[in-house]
User: What shape does this take?
Amino acid sequence: MPDRPRFAFVCVAAGHSRRFGSDKLAARLGKLTVLETSLAALRKALPEAPLVVVVDPARIEAWTAVLEPAFDHTVVIGGGGWRQDSVRLGVECAAAAGAVVVAVHDGARPLAHPDDINRAITALGDASGVVLCAPVSDTVKRVDEDGRVLETIDRRTLRLAQTPQVLKVSALRSAWQRQKMSLEWSDEAALLEASGFEVRTVIAEHPNPKLTTVADFALVQIVAVDGS
Assistant: This one.
């Protein structure tokens, strides 16, 4: 397991929750907000690891007041215009404190299981990145622009990417230099893949849904109760 001075969590929570209709990270799952629940999961995985939490710049003071009492070794900073900008700011903050490996996690995934988080960290080895994933259970069709089926894709070769994504800072910095950051990258793993770095996957053994809409919140609440 990485030593604390060389490993850090970066939790990205700077989105505007447009599809949710209000600040989804401030919604409550029991006594804690969604963001607090996400951070608690990271802390259960590695209690002493530093946390960098990237939030909407307008919410830095508010979130600092919420998080400081419960989460030590935590820095709250402002994010950028796109998610990838917020990740970069968070990673560079962690790197400035000595981290060479980071686990980037979406604050909107509050149910990440500590065992899955640790399995992803352990799987890094000599690769540049590890993505926590879910298998694809439905049959997948590739279609043309008119919706006609072109082929059925073997779902055994497919994975649904989740977070955390465990990444080497050196590989990220190299990818940031090589790739056009004016383009929007879906996740950091895609950025590393485009730069030729090896990225591995680990299958999550526990539910890890992302909170995007109000309907997602109902599902997250059900899963949280079932898992408690």
Confidence is low (pLDDT under 50) at residues 1-5. The CA atoms of residues 66 and 130 lie 30 Å apart.
